[in-house]
Every structure is written in structure tokens, then in C-alpha cells.
């Protein structure tokens, strides 16, 4: 650990020297070494950084001569509802420019002046291309040219008449920003100079949320395998315990937790979470409904008289472990995307279509019992306001059925903090926001592995980011957990973790598959007759043969309807599927593939699984067309 840490510091220091010495030799462009340029190109291709993300890498210059007519206002001064769009109006512009843009800043008192030393902090999220600027990160931003009339000055206004004729004409633009209730007030700041060399022109009026205490974003999880209890977790600006009301007049008080800037991890230099990416999460409330029946619909509300109440919501309990069947959806790497034309720090373009498709499936009564999200959850990565947007995005699914999660590198990893991989992928979150928002039935803090049973399936869910070596806590746990499965009760054993054991996509700098992980854990999968292993991390869909140590132990045959069927009556090896195609920019497959790889498709979507006692049926749904891209089944007679 210590050596990793100092190596990391050395690399950052070297970069810092490179960047700072380079910028002093040239005022308009920065010289970057080839290593920096190449790794940035690599990173952009694999993680979809928007141009906006490199915003804070610039030095804030003084705007030349702001004109006297310039104004930035919001269409209404009334306070903000829990979700909606704010129209921002910029007028009195004498010379419209491509480089004019508006940033949405929250809280309004944040310092958006120049913070040149943020350069080194930004490098922690992997982006090494530019120098930083703003001391506090904008939630989102848009160029005024998004208004098609702006640059051509279609909306002319006269600012000064001399003897009845207009001598000063000005131009204007309107922009729409999607806002969810993240509790802190907002202001809009007008910048010139583009994202690359911005300077502040003008600041708008401030806007507050009507009720920053409003209880919001309920999502469900199970606490055991009985299907008789359900945990509800929600967010509110109010610290006082609230009530969860359900069934026929039952009520249970919430347990309240939160986390602070001090709970964020950091190295030298500070992480985004610890510094300019921080946003106050309010309070996370959680309460457990008990005495329910499995596979049954109930309604619930949550809140308090002083903070406000949610509407009435329907939920469905999952089937009890050991019962005949279960239907669930699964995927990894979803994240979120803006519902307006804004640039944001991290955008996962497929996430909107995928959540919409799943919400349609659930609301059309398509018998979904639960959802499994296998790591890389929100991609907030130290920009904490993005958790509120993510929670708002998944509420249409996660408030109705249990939303079970596994941790990914973008929730947990940070150098020197006990993650297996010493990359700063969590931006300094170190799993703290993840564990607070997604309270899974794990044994202890920062031990995010657990098992659960629903219908005919036993799920063993691990953290690939925590020690999985022989004799580690987690290894011992998974060994015991899988050995204890009663296959007459739950005939199917599904293993889930974030980083895959099999993928045809191999990163150049960072490998998709860690051979040490495969060496340590794959034998356990075989020994315990795991039927199906589901993974994320790589952003596409790939299905294997029944495989062990890269060799096909069995191939599927065509069953009824021509569907690929793996007969596990005489078990040979696990079938692996990478399902990290739920939002993040898709990864292309290389043209050739190993024999173990049977199906490779890169489209946004999720898998739908139906497990009975005789068959495990898997369908890969394309979120945009709603067509099945792949289907297969595993059977046992
Ligand atoms: C970076 O890429 C350039 C071509 O774009 C190549 O010539 C150079 O060798 C690369 N440098 C490193 C360190 O990989
Ligand atoms: C990034 O993607 C673009 C477009 O697909 C490609 O032309 C380029 O070679 C890629 N760069 C790297 C470093 O993989
Ligand atoms: C909002 O308030 C500001 C000053 O506080 C004012 O200049 C502006 O005209 C108001 N806008 C509306 C739409 O009422
Ligand atoms: C993982 O656990 C093993 C067994 O306890 C231990 O030897 C090893 O040092 C641990 N690795 C790390 C990175 O902590
Ligand atoms: C499983 O193995 C047994 C014994 O070798 C054999 O009789 C049976 O046909 C096999 N079943 C299948 C479905 O392959
Ligand atoms: Fe990942």
C-alpha cells in the first residue's frame, strides 16, 4: 500500500511539474508530454469525458469590458419544485459569441473564482488534459448557442434610441436547465470565453427549492430472503426521524444517517469529493417494513408533517427464497445523463433509455420482482450532487421493486484506502455515499458482499474492489456462502461481481480482466457449480460457453424455438455474461475473439431473467428498440 501511494504521489508530482512548467513557457496553449496526451486520449475513449469536465482546468481571466445592458435572469423568481426545468434568459448582449455560456452553480455562495491549483486534483478523476479554474464545480452548463437564434441575433431589442432611431441593438437567448430538488439554492453565472478560457460576466438572481426538506427518491432493498420485509431508503433535508407508513395503517420511524466532507477520502492532493466536488447530501432516512407476504403488492408513503409526505407508492415484495420462480432485471454501469442539452462532468448516454424501458416494463405489469445493478452505480465519482440526479432517475423503478446493488470501482477505489486497485476512480468517495444510499444486507461497513435468495435462485454478490485473495475475509465468506447453498431449495446459483473474469475487450492501460482475480476465485465458482456469473465494468454484452480456465467445457445446443440451451444436468462449468451495457458509452469489440466467447453485442440495454425450478431463461433487451438481442437458457432435469 505504502509503495503504491508514494508511486502515485510521484506520478502526480511529475505531471504537476510538467503542466506548470509548460504553461509558463506558453501563455495560450499548454505543452503536454506524449504520455499525458496519449493517456488522455485513451481515457476519453473509454470513459466518455465531456468537454465540460475539463472546465476546471483553466485559469479564470478577466472579462473585457462588460456592457451596461447585459442581464441574466430566470423566467420566474418563484421557488423551485422537486423536479422541473428552469428557463434562464440572457439579454442585452451587444456582440453574441460562440464562447458565451451559462453555468448552474449551487449553493449560490460557492466560490467560482480561479483556483489554479485544482489542476492536480482533477487529475485524480483520470482527466489529464488541461489546467483547472473554478474553485467550485458547476452542476451543469450550456452554451448560449444552444438557443438557435442567439448567434444570428434573431431576437433583437433596442437599448438606446437617438431622435427616434435605434442606435444600440442587443441580442438575447433562453436556455432550459433540468433541476431536481438537491436542497441547496442555485444561481446561474454567465461566462464568456468558452469552457477553455472562461471569465465571469454576470450573475443571476438566486433560486431556492420550495421545500428543501421534502422526502424524496425512495428506493427499496430486501434485508433477508423471506420476502416478508422491505427496506425503504429516501433522502430529505430534515434530520428529524420520519415515518414509513404501509399496509393497513402500520408505521415505522426512520433511522437517519448522513456523511460529511470529512468522511470523504483523499490523498495528496485532495480528492474532488473532499474539495470542489462536494455537495451536502442532506439526510438519508431508512426504515424496514415487516410482516409482509412474499410476491404481494402493498402501498406505502414516507415523510413527516414537518418535512412533508411522499405520494402513495405501490411496491411488490420479491418471492421467498426456495419458492418456485423469480423474474428480475440485471445490468451494470448505468449512471445518469442530463434531461436538458447541458454539459456535465460525467454523462452516461444510455442511462435514460434503459431506465425508461425498465420503468415501462414495471408499470405495464410485466411481473418484475427485483432489479440487480452490478457496480458503477451513479458515476458521481466525487461530484456529489450527481447522486441526487441518479436517485431521481431510478425512482420510477427502484421505488416499486427491490433494487439490489454490488459495488464497483467508481464507488470504491482510491489509493491507500484498502481497495484492491489503487486508482482514484471513486473521486474520493471510497464507498461512503454508496453504502449510505444503498443499504444492502451486508455484514459490516466497508464489507459490501452479501447473499440473498429469491424464488429458485441463490445470489452470491461480491465486491471485486475488496480483497478476494485466499484467506481474506471476503474469500472465506464466499467460499462458505456458496458451499452452504441447498440446491434442492434454490436449484440455481448466480454469482455477481463488478469486474469480469471473461471479456474480449482488453484495455491498453488498464486491463478489463485481472488474471489474479480469475486465478483466485474461478476455482470456487466451479467447485460450487455456479450456473451463471454476471459482471459489469466492460460496457457491452458478451456471453461465453460453459467455461473454465478459458476452455469451453460445454457448448449450448439449440433447444425449443432455436434458443441456445446449456444443459446443466451433468454440470461442467459456469456460463459467464458481461452485462455492463446499461448507460456508459459502449465499448467496441475487437474483430477477433477467443473460442469461449459465443455472443458479442454492444447496444444499450439490460437483461431480463426468468428462473423456474427447471430453467434459467436470460433475455438481453435492447432499451431503444425493446427487441431481444440475445436469449439463452440453462436447464437442469
Ligand atoms: C503517443 O502517441 C504518438 C502518436 O500519436 C506516438 O508517436 C508516441 O510514441 C506515443 N507516446 C507514448 C509514450 O505512448
Ligand atoms: C478513440 O476513438 C476514436 C474514434 O473511435 C479513434 O479514432 C481513436 O483511435 C481512439 N483512440 C484511442 C487512443 O484508442
Ligand atoms: C426576479 O428578481 C430580480 C431581482 O431580484 C428582478 O430583477 C427580476 O426582474 C425578477 N424576475 C421576475 C421574472 O420576476
Ligand atoms: C488480502 O488478504 C490476504 C489474506 O489475508 C493478505 O495476505 C493480503 O495481504 C491482502 N491484500 C491486501 C492488498 O490487503
Ligand atoms: C448425464 O450423465 C449420465 C451418466 O453419464 C448420462 O446417463 C446422462 O445421459 C447424461 N445426461 C445428459 C443430459 O447429458
Ligand atoms: Fe467499472
TrEMBL record:
<keyword id="KW-0325">Glycoprotein</keyword>
<feature type="domain" description="Purple acid phosphatase N-terminal">
    <location>
        <begin position="215"/>
        <end position="317"/>
    </location>
</feature>
<dbReference type="InterPro" id="IPR004843">
    <property type="entry name" value="Calcineurin-like_PHP"/>
</dbReference>
<dbReference type="Pfam" id="PF17808">
    <property type="entry name" value="fn3_PAP"/>
</dbReference>
<dbReference type="InterPro" id="IPR008963">
    <property type="entry name" value="Purple_acid_Pase-like_N"/>
</dbReference>
<dbReference type="Pfam" id="PF14008">
    <property type="entry name" value="Metallophos_C"/>
</dbReference>
<feature type="domain" description="Calcineurin-like phosphoesterase">
    <location>
        <begin position="327"/>
        <end position="541"/>
    </location>
</feature>
<dbReference type="GO" id="GO:0005576">
    <property type="term" value="C:extracellular region"/>
</dbReference>
<dbReference type="InterPro" id="IPR029052">
    <property type="entry name" value="Metallo-depent_PP-like"/>
</dbReference>
<keyword id="KW-0862">Zinc</keyword>
<keyword id="KW-0964">Secreted</keyword>
<dbReference type="Pfam" id="PF00149">
    <property type="entry name" value="Metallophos"/>
</dbReference>
<dbReference type="InterPro" id="IPR040974">
    <property type="entry name" value="Fn3_PAP"/>
</dbReference>
<comment type="subunit">
    <text>Homodimer.</text>
</comment>
<feature type="domain" description="Purple acid phosphatase C-terminal">
    <location>
        <begin position="573"/>
        <end position="631"/>
    </location>
</feature>
<protein>
    <recommendedName>
        <fullName>Purple acid phosphatase</fullName>
        <ecNumber>3.1.3.2</ecNumber>
    </recommendedName>
</protein>
<dbReference type="InterPro" id="IPR015914">
    <property type="entry name" value="PAPs_N"/>
</dbReference>
<comment type="similarity">
    <text>Belongs to the metallophosphoesterase superfamily. Purple acid phosphatase family.</text>
</comment>
<dbReference type="GO" id="GO:0046872">
    <property type="term" value="F:metal ion binding"/>
</dbReference>
<dbReference type="InterPro" id="IPR025733">
    <property type="entry name" value="PAPs_C"/>
</dbReference>
<keyword id="KW-0732">Signal</keyword>
<feature type="domain" description="Purple acid phosphatase Fn3-like">
    <location>
        <begin position="78"/>
        <end position="211"/>
    </location>
</feature>
<dbReference type="Pfam" id="PF16656">
    <property type="entry name" value="Pur_ac_phosph_N"/>
</dbReference>
<dbReference type="GO" id="GO:0003993">
    <property type="term" value="F:acid phosphatase activity"/>
</dbReference>
<feature type="signal peptide">
    <location>
        <begin position="1"/>
        <end position="27"/>
    </location>
</feature>
<keyword id="KW-0378">Hydrolase</keyword>
<dbReference type="InterPro" id="IPR041792">
    <property type="entry name" value="MPP_PAP"/>
</dbReference>
